[in-house]
């Protein structure tokens, strides 16, 4: 009985998203089907070393944006591409490219974000860490850094995110 209770508690604590029968079977190595707002969602992978110097437009950020790294506990990977679905059973969920993991280590790749606003710069002034990263709307999370690869999640409270509440599950009638 104690073992069963422990396993139930552990499985509840080991995941950051609430149970959803539509997406709990989706398991990827570097991302989760997090809750998002399709109208606001943006995901553009960029090469950190280029930071505006590159000729390859595919991995550079557009004007008005720069490439920001994401903080990672150990070794993390960014998916090749992600989108927030606007229709279908997974509407309002972040889905990333199949097979896109293990190609873009977070030590060499980042995400495009707009240049810092005056408010962001003012809140950062006087801070402890001058090199502190500005928010990208995403972060890596793992229940145990030594056992599990950290997966990409959307920051709660960011304008990309929506409340982590599954849609009501429609039961089939006999």
Walk me through what this model shows.
With 174 residues, the chain is α+β, with helices and mostly antiparallel strands. Helices cover 11% and strands 16% of the residues. It has helices spanning 2-13, 118-124, and strands at residues 45-47, 65-68, 82-84, 94-96, 109-114, 138-141, 151-154. The strands form 3 sheets. The protein has a 3-stranded antiparallel β-sheet with strand order 1-5-2, with no helix packed on it. The longest helix is centred in the first third of the chain and has 12 residues, at 2-13. The radius of gyration is 18 Å and the shape is globular. The chain starts with a helix and ends in a 20-residue tail after the last strand.
In terms of DSSP E residues, the strand content is: 15-25%
- In percent, how helical is the residue content? 10-25%
- Tell me the series of helices and strands, N- to C-terminal: HEEEEEHEE
| Uncertain stretches of 5 or more adjacent residues | 1-14
Give the total of beta strands: 7
How many domains would you count in the coordinates? Answer: 1
